[in-house]
Amino acid sequence: MLTKKRGKQTFTLANPPSIAGHANAVGKKEGEGPLADSFDYIDGDDTFGESSWEKAESAMQKRVLASALDKAGQAASKIDCIFAGDLLNQCIASSYALRGQNIPLFGLYGACSTMAEGIALAALLLDGGFGEFTAAMTSSHFCSAERQYRTPLESGTQRTPTAQWTATGAGAVVLAREGEGPYVTHVTAGKIVDKGIKDAANMGAAMAPAAYDTIKAHLEDTNRKPSFYDLIITGDLGVLGAEIITDFFHKDGVQLPNYEDCGVLLYDKETQDTHCGGSGCGCSAVVLTGYLLNGMRAGKWKNILFCGTGALMSPVSTQQGESIPGICHAVSISTLK
Amino acid sequence: MLTKKRGKQTFTLANPPSIAGHANAVGKKEGEGPLADSFDYIDGDDTFGESSWEKAESAMQKRVLASALDKAGQAASKIDCIFAGDLLNQCIASSYALRGQNIPLFGLYGACSTMAEGIALAALLLDGGFGEFTAAMTSSHFCSAERQYRTPLESGTQRTPTAQWTATGAGAVVLAREGEGPYVTHVTAGKIVDKGIKDAANMGAAMAPAAYDTIKAHLEDTNRKPSFYDLIITGDLGVLGAEIITDFFHKDGVQLPNYEDCGVLLYDKETQDTHCGGSGCGCSAVVLTGYLLNGMRAGKWKNILFCGTGALMSPVSTQQGESIPGICHAVSISTLK
């Protein structure tokens, strides 16, 4: 049976998998922000007891995987496969976190869209009958990202007003073929959208057209109106990107009454000096595995469209004068099947 | 219906997808090697008409995608999704190649196992009913890899005897829900295996234990003997890694009579000075999309176990004294369903 219409981007899950467990861990700054109550673990100095920022990032992933498995009541050996990736070159945070875990791994690279991409594939495999439990995991760390993508922390470089702050955090989700929900009901796979933005310090503007493209496709494919969702939330477009996507929809005559952005929610605009807000794979991962899924379980929302957004450039492509390809994967999560 | 047994690593495809089209492109050195006849396009100077090695790598991917689609007789708009990734930081070869292609993209990072990982997921989605056509693509380029992972080409650094040569090449495969084969019948997802090898110039030794682990799991899960396969072929363990895995199986009392390695096959040992042979995502991709699939179509082999192997370290993890996590994804390809 085909569960995707020809020419459409949306996969409809015939037997929506259940989110059986979810966990997160964050750094000090995130733990001082408005979502502090939704985090399972807040580290006091962002090292997570390790001797390098990269190892700290792996340590975060190990912690959230163990915690998500625990909440799902499953052993690692029960997980049919995990989808994981991160922002570090060659995704070492994920690979080193999964060393010795005895779980088949499909490595991903989707930049800040990784959590949505991972949940999408983990859900599709379960719905396809390929197992009983799957998982998705990702992370980012402000310090490892700054030194890899930008300038050494020690140089104290001033940030531009359009810049976003790479979140220190990791999130993991365990999906089950059967369970009490929330459920993953639809997946809209994103295409690359590149409108020519070349400023790597303005990723919100680079990613907003991709988010617009995927959300528009999702609404058309499912024949749903934005009001179907209690919340349409993008990964981390930040303050500027969120304005851009709202503006795009307004031009189509479409209102997004319940729209939010993980990057906007994660930090306090007035006191935390993150300019346009949060970014990084960990940003949408910790907002989803905390604020959003906790909120769904508490009855705050019934239907959420979680739209992970990624900017797929590298320092090398920026140096070579290339524009920034954006991508957005959307996952529809509902308390009812 | 569950098509994967609890605790096993192997997914059995109930309706094996058909390989509808496959194409490759390689550089000058690969085009002078023993598999020259199996390549669709050989570039004269490895630039593929571009101004940087990274752009050349993207150009290769664009070329092989167009060619694979053409051979499959499908337009890009018919492809439900593509799985792609490469070795460059943030996988820019793939992201830039897929800009403007209008195909939903799931980005992967699996190092040199990427082609096997991509085919695995592309096949699983089709078998799960999530579309009619999917694709997998990857690439590597000697010059972009050397400057990212090792030393600038201009310095002419001497290579160690255990080193492998990153292949310049790209491969793409288009899978169809229905067709005349060859068919993808089983997928064995790999776990990370790390036996403590720390020498980044000896990746064959780092990856061989992962290949052993996955092939062993595949044979156990499917209850097949190695002799079921006309060919069991690893991605790119190279000369040394191929000896190690053969040795591992010998210690178990298991003979691998039909074992080969893509990295060993790609270059001429005597005349091409690649030390332990080929490596890079492109290595197994071009051997599969040329020599192997052409051979299956010509009746040379009926059953192949294609085992992509990846070394998941980065220059940073090496500098931090970490050992190298290896992974291997195996895909069973047969001329009969």
Q: What is the total tally of β strands of chain A?
A: 13
How are helices and strands ordered from N to C of chain A? EEHHEHEHEHEEEHEHEHEHEHE
Global outline of chain A = globular
Query: What is the distance, rounded to the nearest whole angstrom, between the alpha carbons of the first and last residues of chain A?
Result: 19 Å
Strand order of the largest sheet of chain A: 1-8-13-12-9-10
Taking pLDDT < 50 over at least 5 consecutive residues as the criterion, the unreliable ranges of chain A are none
Question: Mind describing the biggest β-sheet of chain A?
Answer: 6 strands, mixed
Strand content of chain A: 15-25%
- Based on secondary structure, the structural category of chain A is alpha/beta
For this entry, what is the oligomeric state of its chains? homodimer
Summarize model confidence as the mean pLDDT of chain A.
96
Helix content of chain A: 25-40%
**If you compute it from the alpha carbons, what radius of gyration of chain A comes out, rounded to the nearest whole angstrom?**
18 Å
Biggest interface: A-B, 68 and 69 residues
What is the number of helical segments of chain A per DSSP (H or I, 4+ residues)?
10
Describe this protein's structure:
The first copy, chain A, has 337 residues and is α/β, with parallel strands linked by helices. In chain A, 34% of the residues lie in helices and 21% in strands. Chain A has a 6-stranded mixed β-sheet with strand order 1-8-13-12-9-10, with helices on both faces. Chain A has a 5-stranded mixed β-sheet with strand order 2-7-5-3-4. In chain A, strands 6-11 form a two-stranded parallel sheet. At the A-B interface, helix 3, strand 4, helix 4 and helix 10 of A face helix 3, strand 4, helix 4 and helix 10 of B.
